[in-house]
Here is the input.
Amino acid sequence: MTLSTIRVMRLPPRCPPALIAQLAQVSTGWIVDANGKRGSLGAEIRPISAATGFCGSAFTVLSRGRDNLAAYAALQYAKAGDVLVLATNAYQESSVVGDVFVGLARNLGIVAIVTDGMVRDVAGIDAVGIPVFARGLSPNSPYKDGPGELGTQVCLGGVAVRSGDVIRGDADGVVVVAQSQASAVVADLERVRAQEARMDQWVRDGLTAPPWLSETLTANRIQYLD
Here is the structure.
């Protein structure tokens, strides 16, 4: 691969809009519970923008540190409704994108940007209005040399992400649902919804502990120290 080469999967599969719409209606916590208690990106990837809520199909970008040529190239291939997922191998010495890039992405119909790298221009990002989640902030500028990859599998926040996976974000963080599991997760949301309603009722009823606790903490599960 030469320095400037950008490898592109032009037509990665995207999750059906109906599934994305259903996942957009519930919190990241509910989705994790319906997804086998997994899928959340590491806590280091957190909201930078005032806006936090989003849901869409991932369009992945792999970039070397201190470079955003691949990110800009993605604007030629991403589609309206996508979430741009920018993997930088957690590079922290410069930003990967700023408010101008975020504004161009919004104009394309991108619903959010998620990166394990740094961003800049917080005030401008808030003015653009779409959610941006990142590791942190750095005013340092990137180069535009490449190389990079678009549409391939990346890893960020401890989670593998493929283009077409569902990405849902809110104030609690970001969760990834593999496209192959999206239908099953949606189907399990009724169980999660009923479970959450039951637990909310415990609080309204004035309980101080869940009913299952005394049964679980039986004598053979407790060792007294006094």
Summary: The radius of gyration is 20 Å.
